[in-house]
């Protein structure tokens, strides 16, 4: 037997999609509209050398206890002209303090800077680096904390000789806590002083946050067919197809909605939905095969229709490519009145 394929192009949701209609069956396979998945790459989340007078933005500055807090300073800088000092900004009409012996920070301070959220899902590496200058009294400390609503990790720095040191903390091991794969991660720079003695304090400069992002999943319909192609109102059609994940990263569970449309453009707002199908989470190249029956609406006017659908109709899943989420069967379905019905004018 000679097998023939007929190629036809349709425009679906502004996207050129090529379907191959086989003379041996009703298979409709999506061949176009796919862009290459995002390559793995290092992404710079934050670079802050505190030269911007808009500080504390993009940080959130909080004073829990005390009359002094973080502010930009020219007294010390790892490079360029500015860093931040723990007692630069005076509050509550208090007199200014200076980062020198005999002045420095005050007793009984509890202040912090917070940055976030940082999305570390589908990340295999990441870190926060910064330059640190400390000269602290006993039991006073600066803590660099990573946290979300599930876990937290803290790295403390005490003492110091009053010189610049480069520091780096990995999100994979933030003092024993792994944040890779977590979403809504924040970092906090927290300074604490007790009631028994002070010194010059803490300067921080050149904060950098980076992550190694490996891409989002990319779920698409691999095949889709409909049978039969001639039905009456209220009768069922069988939809047979496969969903696959084209990305390296596992997808989350989701749904497909199926629609009846007068044309090749699926319009969820106006086309009747004939049913939904849960789609499980899929690993790379994983296949979800389905064979489900759905009823043609009884109230649907007679005529010729397309049956199509949409993956992730509510756009709750991050993907590298959403342009291949809309699809349609290659074969049209002719809908007629049920046998025995009589049209009464």
Structure description:
With 345 residues, the protein is mostly beta strands. The chain has two domains: 5-38 and 216-336, Immunoglobulin-like; 41-213, Galactose-binding lectin (Jelly Rolls). It is built from no helices and 23 strands. It has strands at residues 5-12, 15-22, 28-29, 41-48, 60-65, 68-73, 83-90, 109-118, 123-135, 141-147, 152-158, 164-170, 185-193, 201-213, 219-227, 230-232, 236-245, 254-261, 273-279, 287-295, 303-311, 326-328, 333-336. Strands 4, 6, 7, 9, 12 and 14 form a six-stranded antiparallel sheet that branches. Strands 16, 18, 19, 21, 22 and 23 form a six-stranded mixed sheet that branches. Strands 5-8-13-10-11 form a five-stranded antiparallel sheet, with no helix packed on it. β10 (141-147) and β11 (152-158) form a beta hairpin. The two termini are 50 Å apart.
Give the tally of β-strands. Answer: 23
The domain count comes to 2
- The CATH topology name of the largest domain reads Jelly Rolls
- Overall residue-averaged pLDDT value: 87
Low-confidence stretches: 1-37
Count of helical stretches: 0
- Tell me the strand percentage band: over 45%
- Tell me roughly what share of residues is in helical segments: under 10%
Task: Measure the end-to-end span.
Answer: 50 Å
Order of helices and strands: EEEEEEEEEEEEEEEEEEEEEEE
Rg of Cα set:
31 Å
The structure class reads mainly beta
Q: Please, what is the CATH homologous superfamily of the largest domain? A: Galactose-binding lectin
Outline the biggest β-sheet: 6 strands, antiparallel
Q: CATH architecture of the largest domain, please?
A: Sandwich
Instruction: Describe the global form.
Output: elongated
CATH class of the largest domain: Mainly Beta
